[in-house]
Write a structure and sequence with these properties.
The protein is an alpha+beta fold and 343 residues long. It has helices spanning 2-44, 69-143, 149-181, 193-210, 228-244, 290-294, 304-314, and strands at residues 45-46, 63-64, 189-192, 214-218, 223-226, 251-258, 262-269, 318-324, 328-336. The longest helix has 75 residues, at 69-143. The chain binds adenosine-5'-diphosphate (ADP).
Amino acid sequence: MFAKARLKLTLWYVLIIMSVSVLFSLAVYHGLSAELGRNIRHVSLRMPPQNELLPLPFRAPPVLIGFEESLLTESKERITIELVLINTAILIVSGLAAFFLAGRTLKPIEKMVEEQKRFVADASHELRTPLTALKTEIEVSLRDKKLNLHRARDLLLSNLEEVDKIQALTNYLLSLGRYQTSQAKLPFETVDLHSILDETVEKAQSLAYEKKITIRLDGKALKIQANPTSLSELATILLDNAIKYSHQGGNILLKLRSDHKYAAFSAQDFGIGIKPSDLPYIFDRFYRADASRSKDQTDGYGLGLSIAKNIVESHHGKITVESTPNVGSTFTVRLPLKQSKYS
Ligand code: ADP
């Protein structure tokens, strides 16, 4: 598809360049022919010997000494050949340049389409797993002649789990879509980052409690310009991950600090950590390190950090990670205290 588009674009570029070049050549040809004709005619008129004593009106007029029409035709032919050669050279050079430029123009679009295709394929794949489980459970139960109320209830509970998974995935996908299409268009207001983190910790307590994890929040009130909903989504993603990848009875430390331009907050856990070979990819959509796939308690879709990165970027900030396997991970987010009006 892109090879065809590249050829079409090349043809358009060449057509535009050649139209200008041919028009220019025609103008040059006409200009030069007219000028040559005038010069040749002028050279063909010669002054006869003059009597300098006579006043001007009585002197002998110029004499036509013969006008070589063939000279003019020959010159015109030579000009035509040269212009044809120049235009052929322009056609070849512009063709090659246009092909190269068309490739460069289409490259980012091709990359975007490829990414979009991969995204749709990954999303469908992730959706298919819980849907297949749901379908199989229902089909098996329908064939069961001895299905009683107790079993039907178990089936519904199991179905509900799968529906929850599908709902979580679609929420993630919607979130991702929202941040990718509305980058830098989020409504900002002055918010206290500390109270957002505090609320997030509060909401995560029940999850932490199940794994007997202690969460500590260090820092004091800090006002920044940001979108409060996105910020609390960002903090939730980082804190949920810290809990998910911590060991039973572990600790999580949230730190908030600032310098004169930036606010920085970090989420540190002492859990399974991330292998150096996985680190470059963890912010990619649908990427999950093997360690998190193999353990069934750490369910997820590999979308959280990708959303987190989009949120941080829409606030013109930066997210970084430091991690050592079996020691723990620290995710640090740096956000500007003030947002530029024109960004
Ligand atoms: P999910 O957690 O749903 O798999 P994320 O996008 O949030 O997806 O994270 C991507 C991957 O990064 C995870 O699968 C996991 O391997 C790794 N990861 C993220 N946060 C942590 C953490 N705090 N500790 C260890 N690994 C982590």
